[in-house]
Specification:
alpha/beta; homodimer; six-stranded mixed beta sheet
Chain lengths: ~350, ~350
């Protein structure tokens, strides 16, 4: 069995210590770094642009990287259940890893506000799913009240093991490129992931495994941009449900990352997000969830302002798979044409 | 850029010849081989059971392996468009690869009979989507009428390049295990994939890269089991939409594979399929589409009959990701509980 890819805890053993018997993995990580070809050309980008396809993790988002470690550590600490609030991706990952470990998962999501695919994931993995009459920020308050119970482990990104696991995406980018990129663009919701990437790049830099550090460029959705605005947003509103967060847990940390890396946190509006979402699917053939496209929208916005120099290397985290949210894709596309089951009926509609 | 995983054409260059300028890849392949832990234990299976997680390909199914090569060869042949009939996974892959190459995709699906996620994929990648008033078999007849046009390449599995690409999954299994498994279990719809795996295992066997060959065990859904019944099924009916096919294109080939490998083609009913579908999600933490679970249902059925010997190595192809078909997962799960945004409201429902 020597050649089985072992998942990120066993791959990055020195950074992710945990008892061997507690390791739970779905073979997360090892996701492709994917070069933009037609999108980069279409928008005349002067850069080399790469997408980290985090939607190809087992539950379809980057959350698996942190959840493998958080659930393993919860098991090691003899916890019986994991609990989280979620816009959908965290709950899918928590439910899946808990199932694999034989632990209970309790997930709390905002009612009517998470994507269909994500809800289906928490349910099919056997989590106890609660919908609060409120938004994500309220759901997070609810679960925090329970986190004092020693039988339960909170696996939101305020759990430090989550971010430790998520550093692995930065490790993989450096392995793929042979160095750090010039810029890393990333969507910002609860602001945990930008923090984790920065720590990951720094760790390798300190160990001499990359020569440089990237400027970290985080993008919030304009309707849910508390960090950009400088104050919490009571009713965050954006099509990008995964980053529809008004009071991020890692707020200060995101500001620190922006300052320390000589980067920034900015916003893109829903129109820019959806335009980038369609562009990457139609030009580069990759279907990401709307929140993921915030990072691409950010690249396109900065490119318009002449921000990049020729030949610079830019990586973008595409956080989750488009299949997480099929309804948005259908809304954003022309409807199918209905035809009779005859070749002639099809030919009528085609210009060949 | 030396460490970027290059996708299957460049990885298996000797088996998949095509002009370099025509290669189109979404970095498909390199999917995890995943050991069943809790499912195998729960059902007291005497075997080592592995799942090949083909849902972690870029468009969420194994179809990407064949499509990378079929679209590359279509481009090499100066085709302007690709066309296919599909139960959903083929059209998603065709649309994505055509988008990345800048070619047109024309996809024909049975109206109202494909999973939501799959429809959303063809649409967002910019394919021209046609819904025929009929089933898959009728959709295939429609596209065959157009395949004579030299500007258009048919990319259904009757296109030989599709199956050549799909052989790569067998290569990866042998690489992961260090040899072929004792048995390979696989869902059977159009019967192309079982054919491709068998060819792939044989190729490596002839080259001395594996010592043995697996017995190939294919499973149809009972309501769409023409090969098992020995005659086409006019109105195939099963929850497993990806294998809802009444007149498979590779029918004879599937029978040959079963005979030559000392395996068989059998059927599992929808109840067995859905039970396996829930079990792998709830016990092993992996969410596959219903059709994928036909292979697991087959393993469980054969195990009940005492088919396996202790310690045998069994691999199962899980063809597509569960996110392809979120509606089925939601139907198969208890509904979420709606609560007020207060910790006390949550506590009421939990036994901690």
């Amino acid at each position: 069995m020597s050649n089985l890819y072992p998942g990120i805890i066993r791959k990055y053993r020195q950074y992710l210590p945990v008892a061997e018997a507690s390791i739970v993995t779905l073979h997360e990580g090892n996701t492709p770094l994917f070069e933009s070809v037609r999108l980069a050309k279409h928008y005349k980008l002067p850069i080399k642009l790469y997408f980290k396809l985090e939607g190809l993790n087992p539950t379809g988002s980057f959350k698996d990287r942190g959840m493998t470690y958080a659930v393993s550590k919860a098991h090691e600490a003899r916890s019986q259940a994991v609990i989280c609030a979620s816009t959908g991706n965290t709950s899918a990952a928590a439910a899946a890893y808990a199932a694999r470990m034989g632990m209970k998962a309790i997930v709390v999501v905002p009612q009517g506000k998470i994507a269909l695919g994500k809800l289906s994931q928490a349910q099919i993995h056997g989590a106890q799913v609660f919908q609060v009459k409120g938004n994500f920020d309220q759901a997070l308050e609810v679960v925090k009240e329970l986190a004092e119970n020693p039988k339960v482990t909170l696996v939101n990104s305020i759990n430090p093991h989550r971010l430790m696991g998520q550093e692995s995406a930065a490790f993989e980018i450096v392995e793929s490129l042979g160095d750090a990129p010039d810029f890393h663009f990333i969507p910002v919701g609860n602001a945990g992931n930008i923090t984790a990437y920065w720590r990951g790049f720094n760790r390798l830099h300190q160990e001499g495994k990359c020569k440089s550090l990237p400027k970290m460029c985080g993008f919030q959705a304009a309707g849910a941009a508390p960090i950009v605005l400088g104050h919490p947003v009571k009713n965050p509103d954006t099509v990008a449900s995964a980053i529809r967060i008004g009071n991020p847990a890692n707020w200060q940390s995101a500001l620190d990352v922006a300052r320390d890396s000589d980067g920034f946190i900015a916003a893109v509006d829903d129109e820019e997000i959806l335009s980038a979402y369609r562009a990457v699917a139609q030009l580069d053939g990759y279907f990401c969830e709307p929140a993921s496209a915030a990072s691409i929208a950010g690249v396109l916005k900065m490119a318009k302002q002449g921000f990049f120099q020729k030949g610079q290397i830019v990586t973008c985290t595409l956080t989750g798979h488009g299949l997480k949210d099929p309804d948005i894709a259908i809304q954003q596309s022309p409807p199918p044409v209905v035809i009779e089951p005859k070749g002639a009926a099809l030919l009528e509609h085609l210009k060949l």
